């Protein structure tokens, strides 16, 4: 594992009982790299993310964050150390406002989570609230500041998912199908937003819409049946026979 | 009136004037309401803010009450000693029980807290030498502070009132702090809060202990107030009553449990003087609230307020949940 690898994944596998979801996956993620992960349904893409974030423990293999072995590290520690994810299904604090969702992320970043003696408020925590306002302004979501999340449309909630993901300036952001279940115009908006992410932010993105991943990624990994089928530059993957076969074969979009 | 300190001051003055206005009977009723309000408030930290529904909170009430009683009878009736040890006792109990209960959630959390509290109940019920068994403990000396003795119901009322205001203020501060907001986050979506980098286990455990401590405080006050304590106050129905107070008043608000405690105590007193089947009436009240007013008395108040001040219906703005 080299110094500039943010993540080094070494022969990682995951089984549930006798069912092998992922087998022997190795991957090195360099700083600033954007990796697209595609594959048909059931290929193990989300499971792979769960292993990286610590939401699931791998059955075999090891994972390193920079040089630290994080294979057994719990998910909250990994999140704290900069391995941050968004969820395939909106997974927000639905009864709270957008601001409160964001504040919860930012107060963690500032190490305020265990402060119990000072009620929260803009006057008492000026830096915290300013940062939240700045972020919402930057991503054009300020008008939703005081809206309770459950009252936002699905697509709007999706944007909040991404906002919470980037808010902590993670070392790597794992995006699990950021455009899942969205209309075309909402999808365009999200894709736009993803292109606006800082270029030095390391990204790993699972996406069904191949045009989107091809446009975003430096490198592609095609998962099939729990293993890496093809790995390479987007052009290579686009031309690859096997990739075309599984996408046509499984009746998925064959737009590539 | 929007200023919190002003609201605090006004309600404190109003309550402090109670002994000059109310009869002794009603004053005692008010003391009981305030004591049970602390109990309900402490449970609300778990149920309303952290989203952990406990059916074993009477254990802390009981340990606080019995510790205060046993210490007052055998060691010293000094309030700092009895209250201090009651807090220490409930803290220890919560620290031990919490380690197990926090590992599970939902239905299992409820059953585990119930099981632990019933263990405490049977311990108290059977340790006849220490606790008087089913007879309970009576003739408990009134609390003292130095040479000052809280010797009559008015003085006890002021003691209860002071502790109530301190407890309310402390709990309010905590639930509104960044720490308290993490608890609310756990209630809403624990998975998400974990993936934000919070060790939710720590937060749930500390909330459990916090609730236990204030449960113990209310128990000790109950002993001061009654001069008598019986095992029935540790029985699971006591936990159930507190849960009803929280839900009827409005879980996840600060004012809710206080109003809930007031309603239940007043109802019990009035109804039970007319009919024997007071539990039947309580059941009806509870069902009415759960079905028609799930946000409790505070929820009713909020929607009345909303209707009075005309509201734009497009986006529901969030009202501060803690009063």
From TrEMBL, chain A:
Task: List residues of the ABC transporter domain.
Answer: 7-250
Which SUPFAM superfamilies does the protein's record reference?
P-loop containing nucleoside triphosphate hydrolases
Entry keyword Cytoplasm: no
PROSITE patterns membership? ABC_TRANSPORTER_2 (PS50893)
Q: Cross-referenced SMART domains, in alphabetical order?
A: AAA (SM00382)
List the Pfam families hit by this protein, alphabetically. ABC_tran
* CDD domains in alphabetical order: ABC_Mj1267_LivG_branched
What domain of life does the native source organism fall in?
Bacteria
**Family annotation (PANTHER family):** CONSERVED COMPONENT OF ABC TRANSPORTER FOR NATURAL AMINO ACIDS (PTHR45772:SF9), CONSERVED COMPONENT OF ABC TRANSPORTER FOR NATURAL AMINO ACIDS-RELATED (PTHR45772)
Q: What is this protein called?
A: Branched-chain amino acid transport ATP-binding protein LivG
């Amino acid at each position: 594992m080299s110094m500039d690898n943010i993540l080094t994944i070494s022969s990682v596998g995951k089984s549930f009982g006798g069912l092998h979801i992922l087998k022997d996956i190795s991957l090195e993620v360099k700083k600033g790299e954007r990796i697209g992960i595609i594959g048909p349904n059931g290929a193990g893409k989300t499971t792979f993310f769960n292993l990286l974030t610590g939401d699931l423990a791998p059955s075999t293999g090891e994972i390193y964050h920079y040089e630290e072995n994080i294979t057994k590290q719990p998910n909250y520690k990994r999140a704290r150390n900069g391995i941050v994810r968004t969820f395939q299904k909106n997974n927000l604090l639905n009864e709270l406002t957008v601001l409160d969702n964001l504040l919860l992320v930012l107060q963690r970043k500032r190490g305020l989570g265990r402060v119990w003696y000072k009620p929260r408020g803009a006057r008492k925590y000026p830096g915290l609230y300013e940062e939240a306002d700045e972020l919402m302004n930057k991503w054009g979501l300020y008008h939703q500041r005081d809206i309770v999340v459950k009252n936002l449309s699905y697509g709007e909630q999706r944007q909040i998912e991404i906002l919470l993901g980037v808010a902590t300036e993670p070392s790597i952001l794992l995006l699990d199908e950021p455009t899942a279940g969205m209309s075309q115009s909402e999808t365009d908006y999200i894709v736009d937003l993803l292109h606006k992410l800082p270029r030095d932010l390391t990204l790993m993105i699972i996406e069904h819409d191949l045009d989107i991943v091809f446009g975003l990624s430096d490198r592609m990994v095609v998962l099939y049946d729990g293993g890496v089928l093809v790995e390479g530059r987007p052009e290579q993957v686009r031309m690859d026979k096997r990739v075309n076969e599984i996408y046509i074969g499984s009746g998925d979009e064959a737009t590539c | 009136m929007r200023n919190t300190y002003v609201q605090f001051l006004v309600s404190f003055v109003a309550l402090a004037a109670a002994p000059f206005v109310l009869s002794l009977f009603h004053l005692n009723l008010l003391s009981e309401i305030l004591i049970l309000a602390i109990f309900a408030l402490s449970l609300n930290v778990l149920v309303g803010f952290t989203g952990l529904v406990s059916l074993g909170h009477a254990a802390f009430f009981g340990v606080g009450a019995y510790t205060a009683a046993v210490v007052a009878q055998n060691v010293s009736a000094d309030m700092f000693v009895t209250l201090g040890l009651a807090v220490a006792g409930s803290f220890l109990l919560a620290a031990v029980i919490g380690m197990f209960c926090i590992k599970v959630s939902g239905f299992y959390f409820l059953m585990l807290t119930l099981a632990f509290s019933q263990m405490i109940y049977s311990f108290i019920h059977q340790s006849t030498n220490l606790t008087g068994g089913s007879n309970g403990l009576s003739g408990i000396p009134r609390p003292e502070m130095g040479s000052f003795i809280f010797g009559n119901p008015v003085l006890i009322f002021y003691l209860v009132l002071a502790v109530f205001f301190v407890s309310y203020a402390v709990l309010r501060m905590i639930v509104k702090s960044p720490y308290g907001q993490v608890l609310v986050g756990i209630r809403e979506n624990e998975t998400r809060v974990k993936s934000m980098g919070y060790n939710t286990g720590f937060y749930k455990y500390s909330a459990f202990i916090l609730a236990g401590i204030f449960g113990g405080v209310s128990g000790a006050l109950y002993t001061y107030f009654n001069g008598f304590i019986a095992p029935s106050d540790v029985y699971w129905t006591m936990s159930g009553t507190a849960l009803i107070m929280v839900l009827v008043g409005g879980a996840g608000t600060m004012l809710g449990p206080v109003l809930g405690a007031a309603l239940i105590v007043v109802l019990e007193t009035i109804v039970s003087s007319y009919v024997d089947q007071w539990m039947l009436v309580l059941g009806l009240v509870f069902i009415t609230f759960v079905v028609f007013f799930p946000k409790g008395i505070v929820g009713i108040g909020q929607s009345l307020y909303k209707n009075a001040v005309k509201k734009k219906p497009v986006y529901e703005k969030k009202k501060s949940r803690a009063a």
